[in-house]
Amino acid sequence: MLRTALVLSFLAAPALAESHLPAIIVEDAVIYATSPTAKAAAGYVTIINDSDTAYTLTGIEAGFPKAELHESIMDGDVMRMEPRAEGFDLAPGETLTLERGGKHVMFMGLERPLVPGTDVKATLIFTDEVRIPATFDVRRPGQAASAGHGDMSGSDTDHNDHGN
C-alpha cells in the first residue's frame, strides 16, 4: 500500500509542477540569417504574459558564448544599441515585443553563419527563476516573422559592432 502511494505521488509530481508554471506565451521567435563573417545576430520575439503576476525578462541562454538583452535607443541623431542587464518588465496581461529598432536579443560569438530553415534553441529567463523554452527560426533577411506582422526587411542583422 505504501509502495503504491509513493509511486502515485511520484507520477503526480510532474503534473502538479506544471500547474504552477506561469502562463507566459512565446510567439514569432526569429533570427535572420547571417553572412559567413558575422560574429553576432539579433533575435526578435513576442512574449505574452497571460498570468496575473508581473515578471521581468532578465536574460536568455542559448548555444552561443554570449546572449544578452539589448535595446536600440536614439542618442541625438545617432541610433545606438545598449545592453539591458536589468531586463524588460512584463506586467500581467501585457505583450512584450522584441523587434528591430527597439528591444531585442543579441546572440554573440557566432562560429558559423546562421542558415535559413534552421533554428536556435534558447531559454528565456524571468524573475522568480522562471525559465521558458523558445525556438528561434532562422529566416532570410526580409522574410516576415509571421503573417500580419508585415515586412521586417533591413540589414541590421549582423550587429558586428557589439563588443566582438
UniProtKB/TrEMBL annotation:
Signal sequence, renumbered to the chain: 1-17
Keywords, ordered alphabetically: Signal
InterPro entries, per the entry: LpqE-like, Lxx211020-like, PCuAC_sf
Region (Disordered): 139-164
SUPFAM superfamilies (alphabetical): DR1885-like metal-binding protein (SSF110087)
Protein name as annotated: Copper chaperone PCu(A)C
Source organism: Palleronia marisminoris
Gene3D superfamilies to which the protein is assigned, alphabetical: PCu(A)C copper chaperone
